[in-house]
Amino acid sequence: MKQRKRTVVYTVIGLLVALVHIIPFYILLTVSFKDLRDMSSKWLFPGYGFTGNFISAWQNAHLGRAFLNTGVITVMSVVLILIFGSLAAFPLARYQSRLNKWVYGIFVSALIVPPLTILVPLYKLFVDIGFMNTYFGIVLLHVTFQLSMAIFLYTSFIGTIPRELDEAAMIDGATKTGMFFRIILPLLKPVTATIVIMNANSIWNDYQFSLFFLQKPDSRTITVALSSFFGENSAQIGWIAAGSLMAAIPSILVYILLQKYFVDGIAAGAVKG
Amino acid sequence: MKPSVVVTKARPRRTTGMRLAKSPVMLNWMYLPALLLFAVFIYYPFFRGLLISFTDWDGYSQALHYIGIDNYKRMLTDSRVHTVIINTLIYGLGSTLFQNMFGLLYALLLNKHGKAKTFVRVIVYIPAIVSPIIMGYIWYFLLQYNGGAINDIIMAFTGKPVNLLADPKVNVWIIMIVNTYQFLGIAMMIFLSGLQGISKDYYEAAEIDGASPLKRFANITFPLLAPALTTSIILNLIGGLKLFDVIAALTNGGPGYASASLSTMMYQLYFARQDAGLAASLGNLMFLLITVISLTSLYFLRRKELSQ
Predict the structure, then answer these.
(1) Label partner for A261 (CA 20 to 30 A): which of B16, B67, B176, B188?
(2) Residue B66 backbone dihedrals phi, psi, to 5 degrees
(3) pTM of the entire predicted model
């Protein structure tokens, strides 16, 4: 009886918490489906099916192009992070010479450096070497700043793979490099999934780098396209809402489908502390 | 079978080259690409930023003109910078406090009992998945002066709307709350995974000893959550102290620099005011602030973990 009462109380409080947390998204929905001339309260859902905001936002904010840019940048960055990250982690995990401990320190110490603290010199560097408004430049930046985490996760994961496997491969005549590609790499799947999810999400959502280094309209990512759209049309809040909703939906869908990996990512990050 | 094949072949000659090829040092090429990227895009700009902070560079001219420590002097004497430092601390420490408080409460609420716990966890975590700039726009609809959802409620009670985003006494706290709302799901998840790592035996033993729920929390749950707490605090500190997006979306640091953080002020000094030297100094200050705060917290939290 006492147990059942507790279950009920916890369920009710839990649902109330969910209700409070969902309010901003509910308001986002009502605004994005409301005609601009409809001045009723944002709390009220429109009693009609109006989708004009979505069409206007898609066209005026050039979201098609922005989605494409964001997608290309995210995919390219994640692929490079996986390649450079797993490669770097192998010698760092397996041959802990004094040099390699130092190198590991160099990689991991960057975990606490927010990229923005070096904005000014980074911007100057980008102008000097002609990386402004290029996929290439922004991709390398994302890769660099996400690599710390990837190297950290890969190194600690490789550390858990028994060395007997390496030795068995050596007896079979594999070179050390071959050992990595044939033995270690296939075993990295679970941690790779976590890294893909975490990095793809933060690169997809990036605003700062994209704002600074992708200023031409053609090269804009979703977040930059939306912010300049907001700057030009702050009165058309229905458009802004529809645009924001369209930009947020892919992440939310991916999260709901792949929850396990997000949770694993947090748990893995928790080791870091 | 295999060894016999090797034996019948000519015995491989062990040259210096081959020995080197077998040595682990040869593997170090594998981290060279990553190291190169770090050198070019983190370490080189970092040191160049130190140099730029001693100049009055405007952001585009070719030559650098050194002015000594003037930028740092300006930083220490300018009252706007002081406000911005305080704001940054509010964003960093305030969000950290609330995210951990609510994160822990939610984790306890959603750990074992209750029917809809998975659903509630998902709802609480979703904001952390959305881009912070978009989260800022979403909250704009709630906080707007004209027709904002929150002002609808305020008006129902007082009859007149409040300009929440323009009032420097309020907007800093609002921004802190929005950041808390967005990322407390991460703290909750960290605590949940911490709670799941605590063995049931402790609680059973405590129950036999007749310990009250509060005692059980204070003597078992909380101490064993210490590593989770450390992680969560450090992540939240770094996240809050570098806050940029939500401020950019809601107030753009205004009015003036009243709600700016070091990040947004630096951005404006550089791009809007061509005060790149000062912007670089602010960047260095931010780096120092984040490093010192997160490393000292890490040191004390770890020591506390060990003493338990």
Answers:
(1) B176
(2) -80, 135
(3) 0.89
